[in-house]
Amino acid sequence: MTVSVLNRWASTAHRGPGRLRLAVCAVTVAACVPYLTIKLAWLSGSTVGWNDAEAAKSSALYVGNAITMGMDAVAVLVVLAFTFPWGRRVPAWMVLTPIWVGAGLLAPIGLALPIGVAVQTLFSDEPLIQSGAGDELQSWVYGVVYTGFTVQGVGLLVAFLLYARDRWPDVFTVRTKDVARGATHGLQVLMARTAGVFAAVFAAVQFYWAFGGTAGIRAEELARRGPAHQTIDGVMGLLAVAGAVTLLLIVQRGRRPARFAVPLAGAWIGTGATFAWSLYELLTVLSQPEFLDSGSTSALNLTVLCGLLAGLLMGVTGAVLLAERGANAQSARPTASSAP
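The structure corresponding to this sequence follows.
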């Protein structure tokens, strides 16, 4: 019996990807191409898409473009790993870490963009994406980039779902209340509750901005704010709350929703978004020291710190939980000599 199961697994592992996986991979990679092309052009000295050609020559901007281009290139590698059989041999942390951060960066855009379009269309006569007097980029750049990000986000999540169902099928069948409580369970609960406090503060500020509040927003950004930006703030607040609540449901083994995969998905995206975007904002602030001395941005700095601490604590809690569960499942698996 054991030999036949292993043979079936080996046959499946060496079988090529199906049409759905290939299609998802192709669409996702295609969605990365415009962004990679723009970044490559800028790194090569082109000023295409810029209103201010001098601003495009900044050395700090050059480094930022190189980093973001590298991140998008990683997204291409990740979706290829999710699609082809060799990806199942990659160590788990090497695929889980980038998809956690990637999902965190892309999910808010994918969720906020269609909502923002609807809100802007219904409640404002201004275009969704506008190039104001202080805007260094032309409006079409935003359209290309954010549309691509939306497609990338959907494609990566679908590819990861198909990949995870093959590599960790038990995650999709086990019930949350049946997940064993290991030696670190008490620590997991403590970290999840602490993270929830930071997440609540972070979400409260995001909701304040979403409903029109302006305290803590940098002066140069106020002129460009509109319903679309407020929608993103609201989505970020909702994702922070979702991440904190679903993580608590997991560590406290809540009975609803029953399937472990459901709260895990909410925690995955919510914690990733809170951490990734807070880290991005922190790096933005640190790269421009003048903002640290500005009293008008103290609320922003504290919000970023709360979001970063919440996302980091929630991410570590989830990592410990999954690692412990994986170790318990591995030890509970029958060995070849004892299996029938």
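The chain has two domains: 19-167, 176-340.
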